[in-house]
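Let us practice reading a record.
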Amino acid sequence: MTAPDSTQPPALARSGLNRAAEERARPGLLDAARADAATLVLVINGDAAPLAAPDALHWTSPSHVPSGAEWAFLGRGHDGEAVLAAVFLRTDEELFAAPGGWAALRTVGGTLPAWEAGAFVEALSLGRWLIEAPFCPACGARTEIRTAGWSRHCPSCGREHFPRTDPAVIVAITSAHHPDRLLLGSNALWAGNRFSCFAGFVEAGESLEAAVAREVREEAGVDVVDVQYRGSQAWPYPRSLMLGFLAIAADDATAEADGEEIVAVRWFERAEIGAGLAGTSDLLLPGAASIAHRLITDWYASSE
């Protein structure tokens, strides 16, 4: 693999938040932060957060957070203030009125400032674990939250548990013979003319390179060469670390959808990709928050 040559990280890898991990074990950290009016709190409802504007999060103080949240320490803000997440199970109703409404990370993550995008993805990734994994997977007992939301202790068997991250690869495929062609696929769950890169989880005992080759062969019928690493970002749907790659198809003619997960594969010309990115065609490409968007835009820009 070769290192990415882009100077800009993917949208959700732009964190400017100081996580202050050394503070998490401090006794009473969360209680002290929740009692401080200067503390900034990002409320999460399912996968949505409140907005102050289309490109800015709405932060609140601890006293304004509804009851029933799971709390976690995210780090320190620009002036040293504590930054917390207050996480709720998804509700159909908004928890409170926000100036810009509520929006999911996948919708607005690509337009937020780096500091806020980093806080949002951290809060959602950690918050989903706090909500969805309250019991010890070894003995079934209910666990106790420790280290300001970053670990769980089982009082029954004594095990310590930590947030889980699942590595997944995502690949943009170019043609060996036609450098202005990009292979994308359409997932069975998508409606309309929506296409994206090929992706899948890394299996037990598998390298990233092997996962790239296997996933592309399974989904698109293509063998790949010259696999290049392009960057990574968290993607908490549900708990992935997406590792982005660019690869070249060994034989363009073998491209064929698996017919199950991927219902269509297609070679797109560079002009078609440009029109899709500009929104001047019916081609629907990944949103700006996704690393797939970054892989596609980097490839498109490489000819300029």
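A brief commentary: The chain is about 20% helix and 30% strand.
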